Amino acid sequence: MNSDQAKKLSLPALLERLGHQPTQITKGGKEYWYLSPFRQEMIASFHTSFLGGKWIWNDFGDTGGTVIDFVMRYKGYHHVQEALQFLEAIFKAGMAPSAAQEEKSPQGALFDSVAQVENPVLELKRVTPLKMSLPYIAQRGIDEAVAKLYLKEVHFINTNTGKNYFAAGIKNVSGGYEIRNPYFKSSIGKKDLSFAPGEEGRGVVSVFEGVMDFLTYLTEEKRLRMPEDVIILNSISFLQRAKSYLQARRYTRILTFFDNDRTGELATEDFLSSFPSGVVIPQNQRYSGFVDYNSKVDLS
């Protein structure tokens, strides 16, 4: 990959593969807003825009530039060749639409929810029981029986290249799949929260940032199901969406499993201030010393 090719890559596609989801999409799909990947914040200050046939970025608290500039800043590289090697490696699965391809099929204008964001490049082929992804799941420290109950093997095709892939995935409430394998994480169909009903339905709910944190809890507790309902955010940008859901259903206790970083702290504070005293009970002390619950058992 040379510099000209790299500058034509889609920055939203790169950010998605790095685990960053937009909080808002404007200007007919040509401007994406994100929580800054360079620091912890609750209000999006980082955005990328499609201008002059390529994606450029700007961060109100930092700097800006091309896709190459972003990688050098994000990874702390000092040489362009390092950034090019990184881009080639991260896109080796062939899942990144080019800027030209995105220009032909822009996303719709301002969305009310990130749940409406879809990746048109990835097309679902079939969903089967978990099998080929089990070594990856074991590496993440997750019990096989637990994983098989909640995850599926999601087979899909990259419509740009015609290549087929598979990943472990959990279904979300919009009918899409949140997928991940050792090389990337993304979504097929609409991105949204995931929900697992509790066995007892007792007005209690647990809220996890990611599916691996949820599966870690079950593994550690040596159980297959939760007595209470479970919501998995799948992205911290769904925090407000989750709050609306919880407030409408009037849960009497909300157990939060947010990360032990600044973003997680702010999310916890947001929840504590949004519900009556005593309703929200943070659980992050369970994995004190680790950034998230899965890091406590991850063997990779």
TrEMBL record:
One of its GO terms (cellular component) is cytoplasm. SUPFAM superfamilies: Zinc beta-ribbon. This is DNA primase. It comes from Haliscomenobacter hydrossis (strain ATCC 27775 / DSM 1100 / LMG 10767 / O). PANTHER family: DNA PRIMASE. One of its GO terms (molecular function) is zinc ion binding. Keywords: Plasmid. GO terms for biological process: DNA replication, synthesis of primer. It holds the Pfam family Toprim_2.
